[in-house]
From TrEMBL:
Residues 23-34 have a biased composition (Polar residues). Pfam families: bPH_2. PANTHER family: BLL0215 PROTEIN. Residues 104-180 form the YdbS-like PH domain. Coiled coil: none annotated. The chain crosses the membrane at residues 54-73, 79-98. InterPro entries: YdbS-like_PH. It comes from the Archaea. It comes from Natrialba chahannaoensis JCM 10990. Residues 1-34 are annotated as: Disordered. This is YdbS-like PH domain-containing protein. The lineage of its organism: Archaea, Methanobacteriati, Methanobacteriota, Stenosarchaea group, Halobacteria. Keywords: Membrane, Transmembrane, Transmembrane helix.
Length: 192
């Protein structure tokens, strides 16, 4: 129970009995909880709360591993040269960690939200009923690992998606399930 003004309000999870194992696993894997986020509406239900998958950073992490390995080998020849090669690898790992940890994707019963930042929080969002188009994109590598990119748009042109109205969720784990959930919510919200 929490206090708002002078009136007590009861807080509860409407999806407690309806939460699938996949939703629970997605939230547990991401280590996230959206119960304390100020950008959520009081009566809004979070359906998906996830972060970009580590697999999306494979190229960066491979490059970082090569720098660290080279740095380790060069320390046997000369310490300064080893450290010179080691530092970019550590910086790349730090960059990947920051990009993944401080980016969240939330799909609620009303909105799609991309929240980024550590000390400064930025949110980009769209109302589910305002979505005109939804696009999923994956490569054979990402498809085999179960992640992809979801792009939702307010405008669809004959040549594809319009500029400026797109909200992109990159490296979404279980992207097909998340896209299907957005489609279902959109259909429910538009009453079709």
């Amino acid at each position: 129970m929490s206090q708002r003004g002078n009136q007590p309000t009861m807080e509860y999870d409407e999806t407690e009995g309806n939460k699938s194992e996949a939703d629970t696993a997605t939230q547990a894997e991401a280590g996230t909880s959206s119960a304390d986020e100020s950008f959520l509406l009081d009566d809004e239900t979070v359906l998906v709360d996830t972060r970009p998958t580590w697999w999306g950073w494979t190229g960066y992490l491979t490059l970082a591993g090569m720098f660290v390995g080279l740095g380790f080998l060069l320390t046997f020849v000369e310490l300064a040269a080893g450290l010179l090669a080691f530092v970019p690898g550590v910086l790349l790992v730090g960059y990947v960690w920051y990009q993944r940890i401080y980016q969240r994707y939330l799909v609620t019963d009303r909105r799609i939200i991309v929240a980024t930042g550590m000390t400064t929080r930025t949110t980009n969002e769209t109302w589910v009923e305002d979505v005109s188009g939804l696009q999923t994109k994956t490569t054979s590598f990402s498809r085999s690992r179960g992640y992809g990119t979801i792009t939702v748009s307010h405008t669809v042109t004959p040549s594809g998606f319009g500029l400026g109205g797109d909200l992109q969720l990159q490296g979404v784990p279980n992207y097909e399930r998340v896209a299907q959930m957005i489609r279902r919510r959109q259909s429910e919200r538009k009453g079709r």
